[in-house]
């Protein structure tokens, strides 16, 4: 991989920090930076911001009684993955309010999933996404979610504007589109889009306040997947990453077939 960057591990236990860093080093190509306190983390984040593409954070640091580590990372635009010793609905609510990418219980069985997430977040830096919705508020909500996943995010107000943007912008791999829009609704937009961009080259996720028949219609006109409003952050992240993983598998398969044909 080019433009290799670092994973920042913030963990007050030196033993735990070493274990996490070793797992990341063995399972991924990414070097780690390590901090054991909020002060150390702040120094590394501010001085080496461009070297970091994701932070693995412990919420219970000796000099961080107010839980400032996640807001610190967020303020610097560093996607955060939290490792927590305890987990309940209140912890989940707080983490989602702080816009973390994901959270894991401190358990070695969780390391594999965390390492796969780290690799996906790295790859996302090179992926363009397009959010299509006439609601400025909801469009910005989705943009914030996708930007937090390290994706490059573009916005369009309706299907017609989105088609123009797709023709103008190279390399868009993901489209998240609403159904109810002026000029060209989500169904019409996907039908026109699929005339040029097939499912195995461009992922489309439909969004609507209604499920049921609209879900079926979205899939029949060419969407890869579907989300119901209000969109839950965790579900959105899972579906986006699953679809991008599948797109990558199909791209690799085509390249292997092309090489075999030669």
CATH class of the largest domain: Alpha Beta
Please count the beta strands (DSSP E, at least 2 residues each).
10
- Sheet having the most strands: 5 strands, parallel
Instruction: List unreliable stretches of 5+ residues.
Output: none
**Main β-sheet, spatial strand arrangement:** 2-1-3-4-5
CATH homolog superfamily of the largest domain: Response regulator
Helix-strand pattern: EHEHEHEHEHEHEHEHEHEH
Q: How would you classify the quaternary structure?
A: single chain
Q: How does the overall form come out from the CA principal axes?
A: globular
**SSE class:** alpha/beta
Termini distance?
25 Å
Q: How would you explain this protein's 3D organization?
A:
The chain is 47% helix and 20% strand. It is α/β, with parallel strands linked by helices and 262 residues long. The chain folds into two domains: 6-123, Rossmann fold (3-Layer(aba) Sandwich); 127-261, Response regulator (Rossmann fold). The strands form two sheets. Strands 2-1-3-4-5 form a five-stranded parallel beta sheet, with helices on both faces. A five-stranded parallel beta sheet has the order 7-6-8-9-10, sandwiched between helices. Helix 7 (159-168) packs parallel to helix 8 (186-194). It is globular.
């Amino acid at each position: 991989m080019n433009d290799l960057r670092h994973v920042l591990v913030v963990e007050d236990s030196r033993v735990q920090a070493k274990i996490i860093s070793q797992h990341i080093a063995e399972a991924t190509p990414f070097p780690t930076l390590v901090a054991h306190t909020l002060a150390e983390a702040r120094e590394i984040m501010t001085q080496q911001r461009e070297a970091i593409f994701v932070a693995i954070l412990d919420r219970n640091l000796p000099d961080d009684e107010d839980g400032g580590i996640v807001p610190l990372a967020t303020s610097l635009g560093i996607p955060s993955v939290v490792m927590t010793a305890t987990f309940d609905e209140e912890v989940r609510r707080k983490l989602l309010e702080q816009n973390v990418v994901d959270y894991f219980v401190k358990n070695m069985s969780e390391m594999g999933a965390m390492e796969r997430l780290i690799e996906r977040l790295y790859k996302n830096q090179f992926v363009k996404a397009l959010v299509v919705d006439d609601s400025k508020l909801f469009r910005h909500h989705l943009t914030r979610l996708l930007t937090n996943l390290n994706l490059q995010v573009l916005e369009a107000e309706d299907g017609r504007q989105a088609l123009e943007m797709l023709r103008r912008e190279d390399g868009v791999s993901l489209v998240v589109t609403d159904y109810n829009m002026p000029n060209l609704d989500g169904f019409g937009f996907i039908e026109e889009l699929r005339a040029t961009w097939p499912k195995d080259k461009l992922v489309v996720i439909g969004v609507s306040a209604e499920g049921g028949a609209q879900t079926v219609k979205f899939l029949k006109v060419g969407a890869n997947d579907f989300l119901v409003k209000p969109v839950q952050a965790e579900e959105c992240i899972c579906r986006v990453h699953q679809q991008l993983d599948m797109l990558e598998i199909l791209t690799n398969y085509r390249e292997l077939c092309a090489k075999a044909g030669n």
